[in-house]
Amino acid sequence: MLDKVEALVLKANNTAEVIKPFSGEVRVVSHHDCDGICSGAIIAKALLRDGKRFRLSFVRQLTADVVEKLSREGNRLTIFADMGSGQLDAIQSRLMKSGEVVVVLDHHQPQGEVLKDRLHQINTYAMGMDGNVSGSGIAYLLARAMSPDNKDLSELGVVGAIGDSQTDSIGPDWGLFGLNKEILKDAVSTGRISVERGLRIWGKTTRPIHKALEFSMDPYIPGVSGSESGAVHFLQELGIPLKNGNEWRTLSDLSDEEARRLSSGIIKERMKGSHENPDWIFGDVYTLAGKGDYSDANEFATILNAAGKQDMGYLGVELCLNSQSAFGEVQDMLDSYRREIGRALDAVCRNGDGRIEKRTTPFANYIIAGSAISEHVISNVTSILSRSDAMPELPVFSFVDAENSMTKISARLPDSMSGSINLKDVVAEAAKSAGGEGGGHGSAAGASIPRGAEQMFINSIETILTNLGKGENTDGRGSEAESQTRRFAKIASGACDGGSEAGKGREAEGRGERAEAGSEAGAEGRVKVSKAVERQGLVRYISA
Questions:
Q1: Helices H, strands E: what count in the chain?
Q2: Distance between CA 281 and CA 292 in Å, rounded?
Q3: Residue 510 pLDDT
Q4: Residue 320 in 3-state DSSP?
Q5: For residues 263 and 197, what is the distance between their CA atoms, to the nearest angstrom?
Q6: Is residue 291 classed as helix, strand or coil in its secondary structure?
């Protein structure tokens, strides 16, 4: 019997044979986050190399409205990247009425069954593989099956995985594992990525050293993390200059001796703070070829997320495909993005001058922001708050106004609760009870519900979490769910007794959090964009 990876590759090969003979225009729809932008860029490049015309779009969610709109376009071949498995029923009933072919490239848990042989789904969940591969990784497998020349696109499979927070640790080792590691090998072999062991601190090439240390929350440095003055004093004690002349130095500017001194200093500070495993501060550092100042893969993933959240998916694709003119736009885009996140966090701290309501129950934190915070940054804001000491160490649910009289919900678990519950299942169930749709991952999820149904959603969340807090498992998902239920019950008991210690902050930006904003993208300067702007994020891009 073929093992799971071989079966996945065979599925990709079979799907490639469906796409290659197609002579019409291919419709490509992808998720609007780092992983989705990388997925879209991979498919766009593979289609361009195969001489095919295509239209590429990014959407925040594949809702019933988006599927309905696509059904009116008359597409004969549609490819969904980093999405689609949660909407199999709608896709088959709306898009596949008379010979249409659909390809779904996804790594999220499928909902519904594949009933039509013209629907080709490549999904790790469906093949018994959970984790350690991203949507862009699946897209890469398909591109590689279409042509060996696409092996160089493996770098985008790696960036997408990093942007999807799939770097992890096994003991002191920190990096990519499983199928992601196999894709990384392809990227290294083509010279697109180099890997070295180094400090796991974000901002290696773009931040002044003291700012990189100030914002480092994983690894946490006592007296330094969260304190600019503490970071400056720490570096001065180590004898590491902050500037070269009038220019701020970055971590990439350090000599080997300075880097060793800094590493030793960080370990000593963590030992003083009685941190468990104080020397677990190193990991694989991935450097991208041809990306200039943005060669650090973690930073590049953050840039793609920022582009998506500001309706600049086209810029993300151009960056992925090394359009040099696009790199000149990055700094202004990042500055605008950070300002918007900063304003949103400030609004939460000030309760939006009365426009933001914050609630905390024994089981969760709720931020009801309405129009006070943009839907494009709420996922980042929620991630930052879930890793800060601004509120109790409990799940965070944020609510903001979205288009079409809907409310967008972003949900995050604090790191200490990872694995205690499956947030995707909790949010999906609560959203359904409130007349909406939800999904995501175990520790990060989102939903869209009708405006005005917020309290109904909150009531459902409280009921679900209360039952989990009692140790009840009513969904029949078996031993894994039972284990999660027991862990959440233990955590919830500590929270109710006041025993939950607020977690240390971590800047979500460096983790490349999943974005949920809607926009469009073109490819490598060979794609024309119409001037019409459609509210659902389906502006057309047609290859020249």
A1: 18, 20
A2: 26
A3: 35
A4: helix
A5: 12
A6: coil
Tokens 């990525």 appear where? Answer: 193
Residue at 111: amino acid letter: Q
The residues, any chain, with a CB within 8 Å of residue 430's CB and separated by 6 or more, are 438, 447, 457, 460, 461, 464
Beta strands at 437-440 and 444-450: parallel, antiparallel or unpaired: antiparallel
Please give the pLDDT value at position 73. Answer: 93
What tens digit of pLDDT does each residue of 76-91 get? 999 999 999 988 999 9
DSSP labels, 250-315:
-GGG--HHHHHHHHHHHHHHHHHTT-SSTTTTEEEEEEETT-GGG-BHHHHHHHHHHHHHTT-HHH
Q: Which helix (H) or strand (E) holds 542?
A: strand 541-543
Helix (H, G, I), strand (E, B) or coil at 99: coil
Neighbours of 245 (CB within 10 A): 5
DSSP 26: E
Does residue 239 carry a pLDDT above 80?
yes
Dihedral of the alpha carbons of 348, 349, 351, 352, in degrees to the nearest 10: -60
* Residue 358 DSSP SS3: strand
Domains 4-191+517-543 and 351-507 share a fold: no
Q: Which residues contact 28 (CB under 8 A, 6 or more apart)?
A: 40, 43, 44, 47, 54, 55, 56, 57, 78, 79, 81
pLDDT of residue 175: 84
**For residue 447, what is the DSSP state?**
E
4-191+517-543 topology per CATH: inorganic pyrophosphatase (n-terminal core) (3.90.1640)
Extended beta strands in 119-172, E state: 119-123, 168-170
Q: At what angle do helices 330-349 and 297-309 cross, to 10 degrees?
A: 70
Positive/negative CA dihedral, 75, 80, 85, 87: negative
Tokens linked to 407: 């409310």
User: Which residue's structure tokens are 């490598």?
Assistant: 524
User: Pairing between strand 437-440 and 519-520?
Assistant: unpaired
The first and second tokens of residue 533, run together, are: 């702007």
Q: Of 393, 206, 428, 174, nearest to 301 (Cα)? A: 206
Is a pLDDT exceeding 90 seen at residue 343?
no
- Closest residue by Cα to residue 398 from 490, 516, 485: 516
Provide the β-strand partners of residue 10: none
Domain residue limits, the chain: 4-191+517-543, 201-280, 351-507
**Contacts of 531-535 spanning 24+ positions with Cβ under 8 A:** 535/403, 535/404
Quick one: tokens of 130?
């959970």
Instruction: Choose the CATH number for 351-507 among 3.10.310.40, 3.30.450.40, 3.40.50.300, 3.30.70.920.
Output: 3.10.310.40
Using CB atoms within 10 A of its CB, is residue 263 exposed (0-12), middle (13-18) or buried (19+)? middle
What predicted TM-score, i.e. pTM, was given to this entire model? 0.73
